[in-house]
UniProtKB/TrEMBL annotation:
Pfam families: Glyco_transf_20 (PF00982). The keyword Transferase applies. Homotetramer. Pathway: Glycan biosynthesis; trehalose biosynthesis. Probably involved in the osmoprotection via the biosynthesis of trehalose. Catalyzes the transfer of glucose from UDP-alpha-D-glucose (UDP-Glc) to D-glucose 6-phosphate (Glc-6-P) to form trehalose-6-phosphate. Acts with retention of the anomeric configuration of the UDP-sugar donor. NCBIfam families: trehalose_OtsA (TIGR02400). It comes from Pseudomonas delhiensis. It is an enzyme of class 2 (transferase). It comes from the Bacteria. GO terms for molecular function: alpha,alpha-trehalose-phosphate synthase (UDP-forming) activity. InterPro entries: Glyco_trans_20, Trehalose_OtsA. This is Trehalose-6-phosphate synthase. GO terms for biological process: trehalose biosynthetic process.
Length: 471
C-alpha cells in the first residue's frame, strides 16, 4: 500500500506517552495514517532566523516532521495573508480584509519553503493530503519540482460564492493553484457549489456535473466530505467527567438553574457578540427567567497580535460587563465568561450538564462544537442544540433549533422554546442527530477522502455514500 503524506500548517504531535493529540483533525489524520505507513509534515509553531533541519519523531508507523519558519515569513504568511485576507474573505467578511503585496509574497514563500523541505522526502507512489487555506499553492510548488503524485486538498473553512471570492486579491492565481490538486474537498454541498460556479463562470472550466472539471490541461474533481467527531469517545469523556471533581462544584454553583453554554475560540466569525445581544434580549423579553438560568460562555483568545482579534476581545468583554451590570443580583450572575482554555473533560462536562448548547457562528465551515454537544448529551435527558443556519453542521443536524444569528429576537425566542421543550421532543431530536453523527464518525472521514482521491469511481459526496445526507 502506498504511503500517505499529510501536510498541514500545524502538526498534531503525540504526547510523551505516544497518545495522539486531541482535536478533530488530529483524530482523523491519526486514524487514517494508522491504516498505512505515513508522514505528517508541518510548521513547528516556532520561528528562527535560520531554521534548522526539520525535527523528526517516530511513533509506530507514523513519522511526524516539523520545521521552524523565519520570523518575517511567519508574520507575512500567518498573521498577514492567511489570517488577514484569506480568513475574513472566506468567512464572507470582505470588510475586514487587509491586503499587502508583501504579505502575499510571504504566503507564497512559505509554501515554497514547505515544498523545498518536503520534496526530498517524497516517493513516487506517495499519496499527499494537504489541509486548509494556509497551503493553497503547495501543489503548484510540488508540481514545479517534478512531483506527479496524487495530491488532495481539503478546505476546512467556508468557500464563498463567486461575487465574494472575486474580491480576494490574486483570486484567479489562487484558484488556478487549487486546480493542481487531483481532488478538492469541501465541508458542504453549498461550499462545493460555490466553488463550481466560480470555476465555470470566472475561469471557464468545463464540467459535465459540477464535480468533474477540465481547465486547459488540468483534470480534477470536487467533492463533499463533512468532518465528523469521535462520537463514542466524546460521549464516554462526558460520562466519566460527571464523576470528576468539577461536576459537584458546577452543580452546587448552579443551584438548580438551567445552564446554557457556548464554547468558541474568540473570533469575529463565531458570532459571540450577536449571541450575547440575543441573551440580553431574552432576559428582557422573558423577565420571569431572570435568576432561573445561567449562561456560560467559554471563549479563549487567539491571534491577539491581529488588530481585529483585539477588537472582538474588547467588544465581548464590554458586553459581558454590560449584561451582568444590568441584570445581576446579589445571589445570581446571569453570564459567566471564561477566557482561558479548559481541558476537554471540563468542556465535555459542561456540555453534558447544559440544557442548551448555543452554537451561533455568523459563518463556519463545519463547527465541531455543535457535534460534540450532541455527542456529550445524556440520551435520557438531553439538552437542546441551538444552531446557526450559517454553520456547516446545520446541513446535517436538522434536529437542532436552526436560527439566524443576526436576528436577536428570533434567537431569544429559540432560547425560550428550548427551555420549554418537552422531554419527548428533546429525546427525539437528540436521537435523530446522534444517528447522523454515528454515520459520519471521524474515523471514516479521512478514509473516505483518500478513497475518493485514489479511486476515481468513488462517490464525491462521501456522506450520502454512507446512507446519510446533508439538507
Amino acid at each position: 500500500m502506498s504511503r500517505l503524506v499529510v501536510i498541514s500548517n500545524r502538526v498534531g504531535m503525540p504526547d510523551a506517552e505516544g497518545r495522539p493529540a486531541p482535536g478533530g483533525l488530529a483524530v482523523a489524520v491519526e486514524a487514517t495514517l494508522r491504516e498505512r505507513e505515513g508522514l505528517w509534515f508541518g510548521w513547528s509553531g516556532q520561528v528562527a532566523e535560520n531554521p534548522a533541519e526539520p525535527v523528526t519523531l517516530e511513533n509506530g508507523n507514523i513519522t511526524y516532521m516539523i520545521t521552524d519558519l523565519p520570523p518575517q515569513d511567519f508574520q507575512e504568511y500567518y498573521n498577514g495573508f492567511a489570517n488577514r485576507v484569506l480568513w475574513p474573505i472566506l468567512h464572507y467578511r470582505v470588510d475586514l480584509a487587509e491586503f499587502t503585496e508583501a504579505d502575499f509574497g510571504g504566503y507564497l514563500r512559505v509554501n515554497e519553503f514547505f515544498a523545498e523541505r518536503l520534496s526530498p522526502l517524497l516517493q513516487p507512489d506517495d499519496v499527499l493530503w494537504v489541509h486548509d487555506y494556509h497551503l493553497i499553492p503547495l501543489a503548484v510548488a510540488l508540481r514545479e519540482r517534478g512531483h506527479r503524485n496524487r495530491i488532495g486538498f481539503f478546505l476546512h473553512i467556508p468557500m464563498p460564492p463567486p461575487d465574494l471570492l472575486t474580491a480576494l486579491p490574486h483570486h484567479e492565481e489562487l484558484v488556478r493553484a487549487l486546480t493542481e490538486y487531483n481532488l478538492i474537498g469541501f465541508q458542504t454541498e453549498n461550499d462545493a457549489d460555490n466553488f463550481a460556479r466560480y470555476l465555470t463562470r470566472v475561469v471557464g472550466a468545463a464540467t459535465p456535473d459540477s464535480r468533474r472539471f477540465s481547465l486547459g490541461h488540468q483534470h480534477f474533481r470536487v467533492g463533499v466530505f463533512p468532518v465528523g467527531v469521535d462520537v463514542e469517545g466524546f460521549r464516554r469523556l462526558a460520562e466519566e467527567a460527571e464523576h470528576g471533581p468539577l461536576a459537584a462544584k458546577l452543580e452546587e454553583s448552579l443551584v438548580g438553574r438551567a445552564l446554557m453554554v457556548g464554547v468558541d475560540r474568540l473570533d469575529y466569525s463565531k458570532g459571540i457578540t450577536n449571541r450575547l445581544d440575543a441573551y440580553e434580549r431574552f432576559l428582557e423579553k422573558y423577565p420571569e427567567r431572570q435568576g432561573r438560568v445561567t449562561c456560560l460562555q467559554i471563549a479563549p483568545g487567539s491571534r491577539q497580535e491581529i488588530p481585529e482579534y483585539a477588537e472582538i476581545d474588547a467588544a465581548v468583554s464590554a458586553r459581558v460587563g454590560h449584561i451582568n451590570g444590568r441584570f445581576a443580583a446579589v445571589s445570581w450572575v446571569p453570564l459567566r465568561f471564561v477566557s482561558r482554555n479548559l481541558g476537554r473533560e471540563d468542556i465535555a462536562l459542561v456540555m453534558r450538564r447544559a440544557r442548551i448548547g448555543l452554537v451561533t457562528p455568523l459563518r463556519d465551515g463545519m463547527n465541531l462544537v455543535a457535534k460534540e454537544f450532541v455527542a456529550a448529551q445524556d440520551p435520557a435527558d438531553p439538552g437542546v442544540l441551538i444552531l446557526s443556519q450559517f454553520a456547516g453542521a446545520a446541513a446535517e443536524l436538522g434536529g437542532a433549533l436552526i436560527v439566524n444569528p443576526h436576528d436577536r429576537d428570533a434567537l431569544a425566542d429559540a432560547i425560550e422554546r428550548a427551555l420549554e421543550m418537552p422531554l419527548e421532543e428533546r429525546q427525539a431530536r437528540h436521537q435523530e442527530m446522534y444517528s447522523v453523527l454515528e454515520a459520519n464518525h471521524i474515523r471514516y472521514w479521512g478514509h473516505g477522502f483518500i478513497e475518493a482521491l485514489t479511486r476515481p469511481a468513488v462517490p464525491l459526496n462521501w456522506l450520502s455514500s454512507r446512507g446519510a445526507s446533508q439538507r
